[in-house]
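Annotated sample (chain length 101).
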Amino acid sequence: MQGEEYSEVGQALRDGRLDDLPVTDAERLLLEFVGTLTKHAYRITDDQVDGLRQAGWTDEQIAEAVYDGALFNLFVRLADAFDIHPPPVLDPDGVPRAVTD
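Output written by the structure step:
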């Protein structure tokens, strides 16, 4: 999310403050699901996936969220393992709070 018009949304995502995002309940549920995938994938339950379905997400969309979340996490872990960091000019605020909490 680039640009000034998204700065508050971007900061809320960086901080893990989902309640501050202007998203629908269904979108918030999907973001919480991806948060579980990121921090504790082994805690994902059938009930959680069923809740996503009841909120209107299709199995294909849920799978896409898993693929995207898992791929992003792979990139982060590879960068961590090889001690690769973006230049400070690209990430002046440091590591997002959502990652470190």
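Annotation: The radius of gyration is 15 Å.
Annotation: Helices lie at 7-15, 25-40, 46-54, 59-81, 97-100.
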